[in-house]
Specification:
- By secondary structure, the chain is mainly alpha-helical.
- The protein is elongated and about 145 Å long.
- The strands form four sheets. Strands 7-8-10-9 form a four-stranded mixed β-sheet, with helices on one face. The protein has a two-stranded parallel sheet with strand order 1-2.
- Residues 333-337, 344-362 and 1002-1007 have low confidence and may be disordered.
- The chain has 45 helices and ten strands.
């Protein structure tokens, strides 16, 4: 053979000159290596040349043979030899089109040869030709030959056509051909063909035949056969994954497909349900859901239990595989995310600064597909009340379906959070509202989750089947409490849990939540998911925490739980807990925290430390007294970090205040001052003269108490009081003027100073306003304290059984500004949205939310801005509303004289057995509670006892000998909690003088 690239073999070089050269050993090796590489390259070139030549000869020969086969084919297009030639030629569109047009016109030509001696050959060749036709359709479905291809395929797969020509053997031919095309992916090719034809061209003549081919394989096999299951799985995988499938098919064909789909045998998919999401894309999974909703719901009532079970399991698997928000259209860039709950919409109309989002993983977020509007419309069926009611009705008839329905609903709420309220609302209303109690009694009461013996293995897969029921009930109960007033809650209504049921249920939730917060491996909580659900353990913890907080809020207002129900004191050493919490608080990077969304801060602290997680999310797990100590330690730590010493007079800010204008002078002189700095007050009396005395803390406390009393006076227009004399910001537009908002901001700073210094303020705030200090929302149960009539009206609406149209309500609320009535929309276009039985819970929530939150939004924000300058919001989150009121105003409890006496120090001639002291305590025992409070105010500047008893009074209460002049009145130094008591010989005189002193109301000139 002549070399392709010429004779490139190297000839041996012979030196005839007789000269010699001396080379090193390394040079000789390099030369040898170079020659070896050169020989190898030459060998590879020769082998490549041989392969290229062989390939070219093969291509040329194949072309020649194929051309010969074409010539033979043309001699008798409909004969057996032509069919063999066509199979050997393969994918030749022109020849396939020529053959299918001939065969589609004459059934005898197509099927007749299957009678004779060549029956087996003809049948085998038809199977191969069927696959070639399908491939042609998949590649080019819009051609002149497409219809004839489909007609041939339809005749081959349709037993009616084959038996009409061949008799009974025709059925075997159809079945044989069907088996072959199913094994060779008929549905994949049909799916590609249908996808190529745009929905606007659904009158294409090929589509009716394609639709027939979709269900023919399912009619040719027995439902129990392997090929039936394979066909059904391929139908779901390749056809139901097509977008807007019902809109791609002519109406007549769509009705035919719907009638022929063997949905009664959906159970054959059970073994392969997990593989369907694993082999399809996110968009395909969404399309399967949408297409199932197009065909299955109308037949729920007639489907057997096994098929309904498979349907629910398939929906659950698909939803579980989808990323969150995948069923919604992606939001435009830079737009705010939509609220996922009624309760999340509280501040949607305000502007927020740039915030850091706390993420559970640094893996890239999945790109959500853009959904066709028709797909979106179809998906709306899934959370609709009609659809859910039909599922619930079937489940009521077949209780064994409930676990699968629950799993599907939980998965739906996870992947489509903006529809969660709609789903939960439908469940709460179904059947008169008893679903919550049914869920608890039949599926949650006996759960092993949350039991003491199982807490260490809480996250094990062995408990997979128990989580959906618990999580759905948790969400349902949390949702129900939004629109349940205290009267209904404590009435043991049949639509909710009884108090006896709520005790073990709440303890189960509490054990789970505490276990998840107290784990050291918080990374696992953030990154791993619950077995069987597309939900991280962090999400489980958040859901359970939200429910616990709502239950605890009820228990705080009207206690019904057993003593220590909420505490974990036996599991934790509180002293070490306090020390560790203070240390971890000091390590928090406030620059990061300030940029984290307020809604996500609790999650952020949970990731930083188990203790901060507990204190910011389920603080009630720690006794109140311990949390007060932690709060004071936080303040002390903050003071130390700023270099402040509240008992030193160095670096104090000196401020003069007129007694006749305490509030205005305080506003003018303290608005620009860092109130965490120690402040020294000197009073100017009504004559313009400074009052005697040096402020060692007592003068400031008196000023502060007077300032708060004046600034919070309801006569000034900034505050209103409810029937319990609890105050809240005035919702009138007058209160939102800039000057008044500055006053709210200043008052927030003043109350923050009170909390910072531990000064008790005698004021009671409404619970719904205190909730805003803690970043919580207020609901129907809080409305009773604001507007009892409106509250009763909403309770009536919730329980109304008549025709809702008779009430003529819409989603608006009436307001009155300066005598002018105005309707405010509660939702966009609310005046045109009637209140119905289905949406009335949302209406009740929105009305409550407007009255309790939106009306006072600007005032509350200004107040909280000032408060946050003084007190870190996460410190306040350690308390609920009632506890925060105690922290601010002290314990509204009787003065415990025994406790006071045990913690009293004596000076001068006095001790506990001295006659004047004995008489003093007898007089105090004779005082009523109002007189005792007046005495406390006289000696400490506050009429309420300290939070943790008189042992926490700093310094301790003391009585000092003030001489023997019985004409003098007792005096006090409130800065050191000191009573200066003359040595009265008569108990009667002591009582008169003491009452005169504590009732005089004089200033510090008295002492």
């Amino acid at each position: 053979m002549l070399p392709l690239f010429g004779d490139e073999r190297r000839r041996r070089e012979i030196n005839l000159g007789g000269s010699t050269s001396v080379s090193s050993q390394a040079a000789i090796l390099d030369q040898a290596r170079a020659r070896r590489i050169e020989r190898e390259a030459l060998r590879r070139r020769e082998e490549s040349a041989i392969r290229i030549q062989a390939w070219w000869r093969g291509v040329s020969e194949a072309r020649r043979v194929r051309q010969q086969l074409r010539q033979v084919f043309q001699e008798n297009v409909t004969g057996l030899t032509a069919l063999r030639c066509l199979v050997l030629i393969g994918q030749d569109e022109a020849l396939l089109g020529q053959w299918s047009k001939k065969m589609s016109q004459d059934d005898e030509l197509l099927l007749g040869p299957a009678r004779g001696s060549d029956r087996e050959h003809w049948t085998t060749l038809l199977c191969h030709i069927s696959v070639l036709l399908l491939r042609s359709l998949g590649d080019t479905p819009v051609t002149s030959s497409a219809v004839s291809h489909l007609q041939v395929l339809y005749k081959l797969l349709n037993p009616s056509s084959t038996t009409a020509v061949l008799g009974p053997p025709g059925k075997d031919l159809s079945q044989c051909t069907t088996q072959y095309v199913v094994r060779n992916d008929i549905y994949r090719y049909l799916g590609r063909a249908i996808t190529t034809i745009r929905p606007e061209s659904k009158n294409n003549p090929s589509l009716p035949y394609m639709v027939k081919l979709l269900f023919l394989p399912l009619t040719n096999f027995a439902p129990s056969s392997e090929l039936f299951a394979r066909s059904f799985q391929d139908l779901v995988t390749y056809i139901f994954t097509l977008p807007v499938l019902p809109y791609r098919i002519p109406l007549a064909s769509l009705s035919e497909l719907s009638a022929q789909l063997p949905l009664t045998h959906l159970h054959v998919l059970s073994p392969c349900i997990s593989s369907i999401p694993a082999t399809t894309s996110t968009l395909s999974q969404i399309n399967i859901v949408a297409n199932l909703l197009a065909f299955t719901p109308p037949r729920y009532a007639s489907l057997p239990v096994s098929s309904l079970k498979a349907h629910l399991q398939l929906l659950s698997a698909l939803l579980c595989a989808l990323p969150a928000h995948a069923l919604e259209s992606p939001l435009p860039q830079n737009s705010q995310p939509q609220p996922t709950s009624w309760a999340d919409d509280s501040d949607s109309d305000s502007e927020h600064p740039t915030q850091v989002t706390v993420v559970g993983s640094f893996a890239p977020r999945p790109i959500l597909p853009i959904l066709d509007s028709r797909t979106q419309k179809r998906l709306q069926i899934l959370p609709s009340q009609t659809h859910l009611n039909s599922l619930l009705k079937v489940t009521q008839q077949h209780p064994e379906l409930l676990p699968d329905l629950v799993t599907m609903l939980v998965s739906l709420n996870i992947v489509w959070p903006s529809r969660r309220d709609k789903v939960l609302g439908a469940l709460l209303l179904y059947g008169g509202g008893g679903f919550v109690r049914e869920m608890y009694r039949d599926h949650v009461r006996a759960t092993p989750l949350g039991r003491e013996e199982n807490l260490s293995s809480l996250m094990d897969p062995v408990f997979e089947s128990y989580w959906p029921s618990l999580l759905l009930l948790t969400d349902l109960y949390t949702q129900s409490l939004l629109t349940v007033g205290d009267d209904e809650f404590f009435s043991n209504s049949r639509t909710s849990l009884t108090l006896n049921e709520l005790i073990p249920f709440s303890r189960t939730l509490f054990n789970i939540a505490f276990t998840l917060y107290w784990r050291d491996d918080q990374t696992r909580i953030q990154e791993t998911i619950v077995p069987g659900l597309n939900l991280r353990w962090e999400g489980v913890r958040e859901r359970i925490t939200k429910c616990l907080q709502a239950i605890h809020a009820r228990d705080s207002r009207r206690p019904f739980m057993p003593q220590d129900h909420w505490h974990v004191s036996s599991q934790i050493d509180m002293n070490s807990f306090i020390e560790a919490a203070v240390y971890e608080e000091q390590q928090v990077d406030e620059t990061v925290v300030s940029r984290v969304s307020p809604r996500r801060q609790r999650t952020h602290f949970s990731r930083l430390s188990p203790r901060l997680g507990v204190l910011n999310n389920i603080p009630f797990a720690i006794p109140f007294e311990t949390r007060v100590l932690i709060f004071r330690r936080f303040v002390e730590s903050d003071m130390m970090s700023r270099g402040f010493d509240q008992f030193s007079r160095r670096d104090r800010i000196e401020v003069s205040i007129r007694r006749t204008s305490i509030a205005q002078d305080g506003y003018d002189r303290l608005s620009g001052v860092d109130l965490r700095t120690p402040i020294s007050i000197s009073f100017i009396d009504q004559f313009g003269e400074p009052e005697a005395g040096i402020d060692g803390g007592g003068v400031f406390k008196e000023f502060f108490t007077s300032l708060c009393k004046e600034a919070l006076d309801t006569d000034h227009g900034l505050w209103l009081a409810n029937k319990k004399n609890e105050i809240y910001p005035n919702p009138h537009s007058y209160a939102t003027e800039p000057h008044n908002l500055n006053w709210y901001r200043f008052i927030g700073r003043i109350l923050g100073k009170a909390l910072y210094e531990g000064i008790l303020i005698e004021v009671a705030f409404a619970g719904f306003f205190l909730a805003k200090w803690l970043g919580k929302q207020s609901f129907l149960d809080d409305l009773a304290s604001l507007d009892p009539d409106l509250y009763q009206g909403l309770v009536f609406l919730k329980n109304y059984t008549g025709n809702m149209e008779d009430l003529s309500l819409n989603f608006t609320v009436a307001t009155d500004e300066f005598g002018l009535a105005k309707a405010v929309d509660l939702i966009p276009n609310g005046s045109n949205v009637p209140v119905t039985r289905e949406n009335r819970l949302q209406y009740i929530y929105l009305i409550s939310h407007y009255k309790l939150s939106k009306q006072i939004k600007l005032q509350s924000e200004a107040f909280f801005e000032g408060l946050s300058e003084m007190i870190d919001p996460k410190w306040l989150r350690m308390f609920n509303q009632q506890e925060l009121q105690i922290l601010l105003g002290g314990v509204n409890a009787p003065v415990d004289l025994e406790d006071l006496r045990q913690h009293t120090n004596y000076g001068g001639l006095y001790d506990d057995n001295e006659p004047t002291i004995q008489a003093f305590w007898k007089v105090m025992e004779g005082f009523d509670q109002e007189q005792r409070r007046a005495f406390l105010r006289f000696v400490t500047s506050c009429s309420r006892p300290p939070l943790l008893g008189f042992k926490q009074l700093t310094p301790n209460f003391a009585i000092r000998d003030a001489g023997s002049d019985e004409h003098r009145l007792p005096t006090s130094s409130t800065c050191v909690n000191l009573l200066k008591l003359p040595r009265y010989q008569s108990e009667k005189v002591l009582r008169e003088k003491l009452l005169q002193a504590i009732s005089s109301g004089a200033g510090f000139d008295l002492s």
